[in-house]
Specification:
By secondary structure, this protein is an all-alpha fold. It has a single domain, classed as Four Helix Bundle (Hemerythrin (Met), subunit A), CATH 1.20.120. It is built from 9 helices and 2 strands. It has a two-stranded antiparallel sheet. Strand 1 and strand 2 form a beta hairpin. Helix 4 packs parallel to helix 6 and helix 6 runs parallel beside helix 8. The protein is globular, with a radius of gyration of 19 Å. It starts with a helix and ends in a 24-residue tail after the last helix.
């Protein structure tokens, strides 16, 4: 019989899957795009949540509070908020695609803004209630970057952002993902720690994308959006250089030791990191 944490992981994943079905239905039914998108959405959502569930069990040993290294027996609130953001990715993608042919642009802005707002909410809950966990920090970064990558592809498809901006973001995200995977394979563990430029990249891109959505139904001068894109691009470029310097140092360092059976090591200077 599964232990308490395993049951909590499975129950949380299932609850969020059905929550996404409900969110999709709340958009698809009144705007009548169920026939075109429902079956593909269900298939993608089930496969995606199955993948997330598998990763949660892979890192099950890292449901550990920091500081103190106290193992959790259930998924706490801060992690649930982060998982909700991860869970919403397929829903946001399909609704973004539907917005090209159906009049859901204003409700779409509300959904994207809500998803982005959870990035600040889980951090607040984590600090306020001391719910920070090793896995939570990694999921926070992964959910941010996965959502930004997916929305960037759709925005480019809709000609909302230019190709050069998408390419710059892909270089930033793909380079980081490759480094994290390499460290995990070679050293069998990673350390997750935040950096100022990492947070600046996520926050500035999220703000840009929320503003960019207004382009779909307002007549604001396109130059306003161009200025914002260049400003965020500068942050992205600095972030890439910052990441190269940090990773070069990290690759020469030994990963820190970790307590328990987790794959995420203690955070210390010079440890390979995922943010």
């Amino acid at each position: 019989m599964p232990d308490k944490l395993s049951r909590s992981i499975i129950g949380t994943s299932a609850a969020f899957l059905f929550t996404q079905f409900a969110i999709f239905a709340a958009y698809a039914l009144p705007f009548r795009f169920t026939k075109r998108y429902t079956l593909p959405f269900i298939a993608v959502a089930i496969a995606y949540h199955g993948l997330v569930l598998g990763l949660l069990f892979l890192f099950k040993g890292d449901f550990v509070k920091e500081p103190g290294n106290k193992a959790l027996d259930r998924v706490n609130l801060a992690n649930k908020i982060t998982l909700f953001r991860l869970s919403t990715l397929p829903t946001a993608l399909f609704i973004l695609l539907a917005s090209k042919d159906f009049p859901i642009r204003l409700p779409l802005v509300a959904l994207v803004a809500l998803v982005f707002a959870t990035d600040f909410l889980d951090g607040y809950v984590s600090r306020k209630d001391k719910q920070a966990t090793k896995l939570g920090k990694m999921m926070d970064s992964a959910s941010d970057y996965a959502l930004l990558f997916a929305i960037s592809i759709v925005f480019y498809y809709f000609h909302i952002i230019p190709a050069w901006f998408l390419n710059l973001l892909v270089v930033r995200l793909a380079g980081q993902a490759l480094m994290v995977l390499t460290v995990l394979v070679v050293k069998k563990q990673i350390a997750v720690r935040t950096s100022f430029m990492g947070k600046a990249t996520v926050a500035s891109t999220m703000i840009l994308y929320v503003v960019e959505l207004f382009r779909l139904f307002t007549g604001i001068n396109p130059m306003f959006y161009r200025v914002m894109e260049y400003a965020v691009a500068i942050i992205l470029a600095i972030s890439i250089l910052d990441k190269i310097i940090l990773m070069a140092k990290d690759l020469r360092a030994e990963p820190a030791g970790t307590k328990g059976s987790g794959r995420i090591s203690e955070i210390q200077q010079g440890a390979p990191h995922a943010d």
